[in-house]
Amino acid sequence: MLKKTIAALAAGLGLSFASIAAQALTTAELAFRHAPVHYQDTDSSDYPSEYITAYDYDNDRITTNNWDNRGNGQWPATVYYSVVESCTHWFIGYSFYHPRDWSDTAFDQEHENDLEGAIISVRKDGTPFGTMEGMITVFHTDFFAFTPAGSPYRNGHETIDGTVSFEMDNGISRMKTVQEAKGHGLKAWPYASNFNGAANQDGIVYYPTLGTPGHPLSGNDRHVAYRLVDLNQPDGLYAAALGDALQPAAQAQTFATWGTFRGDTSGGCGSGLKTCSTNAANTPWGWDDGNDGESYRGEFALDPAHLFSFYFSGTGNFSQQYLSNPFLSGLRSTGFHSGHAPAGFATQLDLNTLYAKLVNSCS
Questions:
Q1: In contact, 89 and 159? CB cutoff 8 Å
Q2: What's the rounded Cα separation, in Å, for the pair 129 and 172?
Q3: Do 285 and 117 meet the contact criterion of CB atoms below 8 Å apart?
Q4: Cis peptide leading into 190, omega within 30 of 0?
Q5: Beta carbons of 129 and 139 less than 8 angstroms apart
Q6: Do residues 326 and 232 lie in contact, with contact meaning Cβ atoms separated by under 8 Å?
Q7: Separation of alpha carbons 296 and 263, rounded Å
Q8: d(Cα 341, Cα 287) in Å, to the nearest integer?
Q9: Please, which residues have CB within 8 angstroms of residue 111's CB and are 6 or more apart in sequence?
Q10: Whole-number Å distance between alpha carbons of 282 and 237
């Protein structure tokens, strides 16, 4: 578990990022190296609702006031990350939070809180940061699959939807992701919206930083630095999920049920001939594509090796044993098991079977 940021390591040890990368990697270093350049489409009728930030941007973990407290959106740009390690791969997830999933169309639906994201499989091939082989993204209630050029992955139970693009950022070739305006569905760039970074388009381009994050100066900002925050840090979002899962539902502050944010209709959500749904946004341990067959709710976090082996063929030597899976370890240490799962946990997943995938070493 990471105890310091890469920036603190570099500053404290007087090392460059390259020299740190040559040593044993932390999850933060892996997440930073593979972090995307992120293109966010914006709509001029409500720019601030397009800005990415943290779920507790308003200094509390109460999510039923996040629509209300959005203000001008000048909050630190934030992207959540997670790293799960199998015997052959790292599975690195990136999640993008918006306080509002909104609309400016009559009779459309809105909701408080919005979290969508992507996960990549990175083969541990002996190089310092491995080689990316595939990506799966969340576009509302559907998943989409992408591969970089040269990947061995082929169509599996799902069809590959496109090719991952890259751009250089301070000497690092970074994958590119993009989110649509308003609903914030996410895909590999440029498949999710008509914003590709051109000067005559509305949008924001976010870049990862080891330093201080920024915020957009407007709905048209081509370089905003975002910070990476570990979903599994001790006081983080996953800790909040585990804590709420132990509470009576009426006492939970962040989650309505396992993997689903609490959200209500206050603050004007649903105004102007629109509707507002409650408890409508999900997290990686609650994401699901409801029509993809035998891949189940929450596997994005809990069992990403199975998710990738299901979505793709041609994966080669591909282990489904985990040397580290903080999502499963957190559930186990909190006392959950097959006979005592959190309320709302996917019935198709068996916790004890998942726990058996956690190993101390690889054969």
A1: no
A2: 12
A3: no
A4: yes
A5: no
A6: yes
A7: 23
A8: 17
A9: 100, 101, 263, 269, 276, 277, 278, 280, 281
A10: 12
Q: How many residues does the chain have?
A: 363
Query: Rounded to whole angstroms, how far apart are CA atoms 185 and 116?
Result: 7
3-state SS of 52-106 is CECCCCCCCCCHHHCCCCCCCCCCCCEEEEEEEEECCEEEEEEEEEEEEECCCCC
How far is 72 from 75, CA to CA, in rounded Å?
A: 8
The string of DSSP codes covering 225-274 is: EEEEEETTSTTSHHHHHHHHHTS-GGG-SSEEETTEE---SGGGTTTTT-
Strands 37-41 vs 322-324: parallel, antiparallel or unpaired: unpaired
Q: What would the pLDDT profile of 261-303 be if each residue is shown by its tens digit? A: 999 999 999 999 999 999 999 999 999 999 999 999 999 999 9
Q: Which residues contact 196 (CB under 8 A, 6 or more apart)?
A: 39, 178, 189, 190
pLDDT confidence tier of residue 76, bands split at 50, 70 and 90:
very high
- Contact of 133 with 148, CB cutoff 8 Å: yes
High-pLDDT (> 90) share of the chain, %: 93
Residue 261 main-chain phi, psi, to 5 deg: -65, 145
Task: Yes or no: say if 238 and 77 are a contact pair by the CB < 8 Å rule.
Answer: no
Sign of CA pseudo-dihedral 184, 101, 81, 350? negative
**Is the pTM here over 0.85, yes or no?**
yes
- The more confident residue out of 2 and 56 is 56
Beta-carbon contacts of 247 under 8 Å, excluding residues fewer than 6 positions away, are: none
pLDDT at 23 exceeding the cut of 90: no
**Helix, strand, coil percent values for the chain (each to nearest 5):** 20, 30, 50
Measured CA angle at 167 (ends 208, 12), to 5 deg: 35
